[in-house]
Amino acid sequence: MTDLLAARAQMAMSLGFHIIFAVIGIAMPLLMVIAEGLWIKTREETYLTLAKQWAKGTAVMFAVGAVSGTVLSFELGLLWPSFMAYAGPIIGMPFSLEGFAFFLEAIFLGLYLYGWDRIPKYAHWFAGMMVLLGGTLSGIFVVTANAWMNTPTGFSVVNGEVTDIDPIAAMLNPSSFSQTLHMTIAAFLAVGFAVAGIHAYFLRRDPNNLFHRRAFAIALSVGGVFALLQPISGDISAKRLAKYQPIKLAAMEGQWETERGAPLRIGGIPDEDAEETRYAIEIPKALSFLAHSDFNAEIMGLKAVPPENRPPVAIVHFAFQIMVACGLILITAGVLGGWLAWRRRGLPTQRWYLRLITFCAPLGFIAIEAGWTVTEVGRQPWVIYNFMRTADAVTPMPHLVVPFVSFTILYIFLSIIVFVLLRRLIFQAER
To answer: Cα 11 from chain centroid?
Structure first.
């Protein structure tokens, strides 16, 4: 394993592990405060029990996320010193603000966990809202920094030196809005369906269990609402890619030729040697329309750049197809649930629908992992798009296989701890 490959593999593993906890830290507090708000309104004890159980789960995920996030911060300096030296002065602000948001979340999570029956109920509920705000802002600031890597702005380069740094302009780069919107919606969507899937599983065993019925209703409502919003953010992201990262868009779609009226491809297998995508179902002119709102708009093809400047097309294309497929299933499940609830004027608890939602439980997280694969691999060979290649950013330190194995063991250990603790919490609620 080369040093570059080892560094990229270690970073990919760390990000793939951490993103799960980051997503839960963003979205789980929303379920928590909804449950407590319903308890304040109705005084139904089931909602209070539900809020307390979800708060415990949030605390577990927050603790493990803090550990994995700390590891990531060390890895940025350890594995990518040239990148940090170049980018640090430009995008240091969102990382600093993320630290502020993290402490905001941590402080109010402590108040929320230990404030039951100690502070007024509305103050306690407000603490939960601040946990939600802190987690959401934390995710937004980190994604803002990543967006800058895709569309770097807020600086000039004179004789190879970075000058005229404007940290606000760097934060408000052209990708910030679309990426933060898409990721934030994806977090609420994934967590909503994951929690709904867990409680759907228990409802199949005990359809009249009030605890799981209330939990299923809240989680499915959250997942369903954000499932309807996600295509809007996806459309915004597609148009941003077409303007600022056309080669990434071409890799996502397996588009080799520059052409007007480019088709949208469903499936297909890219052949990078033959420079074509085989076996895809093509919808004529649909890609041009989605990217530019014009059926005859021109789409840049992969052949427009040398092979050394292209991302790994097959990986990007397959990851994008997986993300879209998972998203479409979740949207369908959400719309179907809304229709069933309207038709029967109650919670959709038909056994076949509960099976569907149980199946959907992991799909949001799979879509997020696939989406981040598209984002990061699709930018290659650049770590800072059109400014710094990934190969130039990697550490010269040899033997990176050793930390890769060490961190792998750490993540496996943390995964076992999380599984045991969450299983205990879930089955404790079941009893």
So the answer is: 16
Task: Give 265's strand partners.
Answer: 282
Comparing CA positions, the residue from 265, 250, 354 lying closest to residue 309 is 250
107 beta partners? none
Structure tokens at 169: 């302009």
377, 245 contact by CB (below 8 A): no
pLDDT digits (tens, 9 = 90+) for 151-163: 999 998 888 788 8
Q: How far is CA 107 from CA 22, 111, 124, 138, 176, in A?
A: 17, 7, 13, 14, 27
Q: What span, in angstroms and rounded, lies between the C-alpha atoms of 405 and 399?
A: 11
CA dihedral sign of residues 37, 30, 423, 347? positive
Name the nearest CA neighbour of 178 among 144, 153, 139, 224: 144
Domain spans, the chain = 3-430
pLDDT digits (tens, 9 = 90+) for 183-229: 999 999 999 999 999 999 999 988 888 999 999 999 999 999 999 99
Report the pLDDT averaged over residues 17-34. 91
Would you say 225 and 398 are in contact if contact means Cβ atoms under 8 Å apart?
A: no
Q: What is the CA radius of gyration of the chain?
A: 23
Instruction: Return d(Cα 333, Cα 223) in angstroms, integer.
Output: 10
Q: Among 259, 385, 238, which residue's Cα sits nearest to residue 324?
A: 238
**Residue type at position 326:** C
**Residue 59, token pair as written in the block:** 């605390």
Tokens coding 12: 């990919």
DSSP reduced 3-state for 95: helix
Residue among 1, 12, 3, 2 nearest 397 (CA): 3
- CB atoms inside a 10 Å sphere around CB 131: 30
- Average confidence (pLDDT) over 306-327: 94
The pLDDT, as a whole number, for residue 163 is 87
278 φ, ψ (degrees, to nearest 5): -100, 155
- Helices within 115-163 (DSSP H only): 121-150
